[in-house]
Design brief:
Elements: H1 2-19, H2 36-43, H3 47-54, H4 58-66, H5 73-84, H6 86-98
Helix pairs in contact: 5-6
């Protein structure tokens, strides 16, 4: 049990050092902002079409496009994939809904 505590303690010490600007072994991931409206336009869909195609509520999509909210977790991954290969993702989603 002490090894788990030691790991947590080390992690906290690294996080505090990073937050204070001191050298740290902490791994920090920085994500670039997604331009959801640009992704949707690239795909050539209306908000309603895009939301339906990717299982997103229109309300959520509008918040993302206005910048009120930002996509997180799986939604962020999906949008990143759509931006890179929209036809492939759409084909995969369509194929999955047939089953």
């Amino acid at each position: 049990m002490s090894s788990v505590f030691d790991q947590i303690q080390r992690g906290m010490e690294e996080a505090i050092a990073f937050a204070e600007g001191r050298p740290s072994k902490a791994v920090v991931h920085h994500f670039t902002a997604l331009d959801v409206k640009a992704i949707r336009r690239q795909v050539g869909m209306t908000q309603v079409e895009f939301a339906k195609a990717f299982g997103i509520s229109v309300s959520t999509l509008r918040h993302w496009e206005r910048g009120d909210r930002t996509p997180q977790g799986p939604a962020r991954v999906l949008l990143t994939l759509v931006a890179q290969a929209p036809d492939t993702i759409l084909n995969l989603l369509r194929a999955g809904s047939v089953r």
